[in-house]
Amino acid sequence: MPALAQPLPAIRPITDLRTRLNEVCEQARETQEPIVLTKNGSSAFVLMDSSAFDEQQRRNRLALALREAEIEQKYRPEAIPEEEANERMAQIFASWGLTYA
């Protein structure tokens, strides 16, 4: 979804936590969206339902894993057969005067 199409976040003064805590918590639970809490007119904290937060973290981990897989596929050289890997390791060890088992 393009950034411009996302809904605006809910914004509430931080004093609502003291005066309307149940209402704020219910809003977070119902909307499953973060609520920006402001202090002196500036954003100070973000309140979010824990299940929505867990889901957001899961999506972030999946997106990161997919991105890492894309990068690895793009830049990782082709896999080599085990025999060839063993031969290369034996050559490296031999250059050090050691035996590769």
Task: Provide a compact summary of the structure.
The chain has 101 residues and is α+β, with helices and mostly antiparallel strands. Helix content is 54%, strand content 15%.
Characterize the structure shown.
There is one protein chain. With 101 residues, this protein is α+β, with helices and mostly antiparallel strands. It is built from 4 helices and 3 strands; from the N terminus they run βααββαα. Strands 1-2-3 form a 3-stranded mixed sheet, with helices on one face. It is rod-shaped, with a radius of gyration of 26 Å. The model has no long low-confidence stretch (mean pLDDT 90).
Order of helices and strands: EHHEEHH
Strand order of the largest sheet: 1-2-3
Secondary structure tally: strands: 3
State the helical fraction.
40-55%
Low-confidence stretches: none
Largest sheet: 3 strands, mixed
What is the helix tally?
A: 4
- Quaternary state of this entry equals single chain
Structural class designation: alpha+beta
Describe the global form: rod-shaped
Arithmetic mean of pLDDT: 90
Beta fraction: 5-15%
Rounded Rg: 26 Å
